[in-house]
Amino acid sequence: MPKQTDFDLIIIGAGMSGSLLAYALLALSPSLKLALLDDNPEGLKKGIHPGFDARCIALNAGSCALLDELGLWSVLQDKAQAIDDIHISDRGHWGALELPRSPLFVDNKPQAFGVVIALQDIGLVLNKRLSQYKQLTRLYNCELTAIEKQAEQVVCQLADGQTLTARLCVGADGIKSVTRELLAIPSQLSDYGCSAIIANVRCAQAHHNKAFERFTQFGPIALLPLSDNRYSLVWSVDNKDAGRLAALDEGKFLAALQQAFGYRAGIFNEVGKREVYPLSLMKTDKPVTHRGLCLGNAAHALHPVMGQGFNLGLRDLYVLAMLISQVEDKQEIGDFKLLNEYWLARRSDHHNSLNLTDSIVRVFSNTSWPVVVGRNVALQAMRHLPSLSVPIVKQAKGQFNLFP
Questions:
Q1: Which among 60, 94, 276, 285 is most buried, taking Cβ atoms within 10 Å?
Q2: Using CA atoms, how far apart are residues 300 and 309, in angstroms rounded to an integer?
Q3: Residue in 24, 316, 13 with CA at minimum distance from that of residue 138
Q4: How far is the C-alpha of 404 from the C-alpha of 402, rounded, in Å?
């Protein structure tokens, strides 16, 4: 007889990917018994994971559609700022490209590229929804120390002595995933040698829902539109300059940003709290193993150019939740057939997204004059022949067939 397990699935990491996966699974398969574990000691006390802070993320049109499928978009859309147009430029050179809204219509309205939304807004909604599911066990301050893969189950050992069993263990615990290491999923890490300064800035003129991607030798300066003529800033700088720039007083920081970015968005006149994050590329050739898998940043950490990271992870968890909802017997959860089907559906998207973002960063940070000329010619060609930009628009909008 098949072994009985404590849970159908154990999810490690209660941040964005882990919490959203738990919700998607329960929304599609209410009979599942889940455990959501996190090593953060403050999550339970505050009622919301500290990863859901004031930072903002870009959700492309495809991600908004997936959230709508899961019944979340109706309560999130009023908190989101649309991205209608994207301006791309190469600092110090003549190449530039405007990507306007697609002529396609949804509900009789031109479709935007996506939206920008604060993590804390998503976190509040997710926490409220998850609290309604009695079949979900949420454990905080849990340190995972060992994972044993058995034929019909996986055994998770915690530092406090607890032993939990499940048919599948999912790692959603970020780029430094302990789950990935314990599941023995190989990964490769490449340091870009630069860091991102994250902040909200305000401009004197209206942004009209336009986003900017300004490439420099250290990576892009991205401005994503927010309410009240503000932008969410992601400024890639050399590692040795990141701390110094972030620590400047408001006037000097805005002057440095203005000099680096230019006046395409207008005059910067206010900046909020600044944080610095090192940038690197982390990838796994196959984030799937016997009765275990990793998704989100535990499976792939991308450069923030084009805002692809979380959108890729959302497609991961949606596909996994959909496949699990279609199994006829819970014993099939975590078996070879299901995990193989999952990876066959996700493999191409993983490799394409990682290769595209990494290539863009390396091509636009290259100062060799043949590369500089080539990329600027390409930008101008796409500007005058819009059909050439279709692959970029498709990737930016994230509207893919997830079950080819």
A1: 60
A2: 8
A3: 13
A4: 6
Rounded Cα–Cα distance for residues 261 and 250 (Å) = 16
Residue at 70 is within a domain: no
Q: Is the dihedral of CA 120, 212, 379, 236 positive or negative?
A: negative
Domain extent for 169: 7-52+133-188+280-360
Cα–chain-centroid distance for residue 65? 15
Residues ≥6 apart with Cβ < 8 Å to 107: none
Per DSSP, the three-state class of 147 is strand
| 251, two tokens | 């006037």
Domain contains 175: yes
CATH number of the domain bearing residue 33: 3.50.50.60
Angle at 339 between CA 310 and CA 157, to 5 degrees: 80
Residue 334 CA to chain centroid, in angstroms? 24
Domain assignment of residue 36, yes or no: yes
Identify the weakest region by mean pLDDT among 59-63, 104-108, 293-297: 104-108
Tell me how crowded residue 304 is: count the other CB atoms within 10 A of its CB: 21
Instruction: Give the predicted TM-score (pTM) of the model.
Output: 0.90
Q: What is the number of structural domains in the chain?
A: 1
By CB atoms closer than 10 A (0-12, 13-18, 19+), residue 285 is: exposed
CA–CA separation, 152 vs 241, rounded Å?
Answer: 51
Q: Does residue 322 fall inside a structural domain?
A: yes
The CB density around residue 239, as the number of other CB atoms within 10 Å, is 15
Does residue 389 register a pLDDT over 70?
Answer: no
- pLDDT, tens digit (0-9, with 9 covering 90-100), for 196-241: 999 999 999 999 999 998 888 777 899 999 988 899 999 999 999 9
Contact 312, 350 (CB under 8 A): yes
Residues 136-185 pLDDT 10s: 999 988 899 999 999 999 999 999 999 999 999 999 999 999 999 999 99
Structure-block tokens of residue 247 = 């620590």
What is the C-alpha separation between 126 and 1, in angstroms, rounded?
Answer: 37
